[in-house]
Specification:
7 helices, mainly alpha, flat, 0% strand
Length: 113
Amino acid sequence: MSTMVRVVADQVLSGEIVFARSFSRSFFGGVPLVVWLLWSGRMTSDFRTRQPAGHVIRGLVGVNAMWLTFGALAFIPLDEAVALSYATPLVAVILAGFVLDARESRAAWARSA
């Protein structure tokens, strides 16, 4: 996916790429899910939530993260982008220590490396 984003980044705006990615993900994942929920009779019960604002915030954060990632792919070399994506688990463990005040075990550090 990163390679395809990099290839089309010169001709297509990053917002259009994000829209196409979000639409395809929603369509090919969401339509079968809705059909299955309707078939099983759980449509109303499985979409009920106590925190709708949390879902909206999560969606906005996800779209912004995708937009920034695709925008960055247009400006940095592909090999650096892939190397940064491989470092994500290690960065998540480090940030968990600072942001969440979590004390990670040696096993967590080993899994992230």
